[in-house]
Design a protein that fits this description.
Blueprint (H helix, E strand, L loop, with lengths): L1 H5 L17 H13 L3 E6 L2 E6 L1 H7 L3 H7 L6
Amino acid sequence: MQKLLLESESFDHSCGWFGLDRPKSTLTHHFKALREAGITRQRQYGLERRSQVRVDDLEECFPGLLALVAAWTPLEP
């Protein structure tokens, strides 16, 4: 998911856009946590909230962090 959010500067990403097999309430909770932590910003479009990573702000505060996140791959069991 982190790579998908980082690939676009637009606000075109609603929770359902990611196609994750999780309840909507779970996704909403995680997006709220990201917003409250200052990692994303959200805009309201009707009944839908769309998210964007605050790339410039994060790069200024934590240079290179987003590149590390985007390059991360999970370990194989």
